[in-house]
Design brief:
This protein has one domain: Replication modulator SeqA, C-terminal DNA-binding domain (Up-down Bundle). The chain is 35% helix and 23% strand. It has four helices and seven strands. The strands form two sheets. A four-stranded mixed sheet has the order 3-2-1-7, with helices on one face. α3 crosses α4. The two termini are 28 Å apart.
Length: 150
Amino acid sequence: MLDDKIDMILGNKIFGVYVYLEKKPPRRFVIKRRKLHPLRDIFEIYKPRTLCDFVLELFTILDKTHPNFMRNISEQDKAQFQKGISKRRFVAEKRDDLIQFNNYASKPSSKPFLNYWVVSNLYEKDVKKIVDIACNVAKVKCESLSNLHL
């Protein structure tokens, strides 16, 4: 309910995602939005408990603000996998599409999310790749939290 009020006031526009992903928690990310007044920005801080929660919370936010976000990220993830840029799939329409024959388990842990499947056994390097893909798909600037100067 509060999120809906914030979205209504802010016009739902995201200007940046700032990520802190070190091995030690608290992992967090910050969403930068512009308020009605052009000189004021709003920063929303998220502190997900697990790496999977990190990805799902970010996907939830980006899906609300960008139409067809999940479809687009699934297609981008598939394209990177097919080109050999990525060694595993992270998001797919069918759970079977997440199965790989590499160092990871052949049947990865996954969760259903907005009519798609998202891998849930993630490492920090995986999350960095996913965040980069997600921000690229949403056309949102993505930087390290250390680059955020308030």
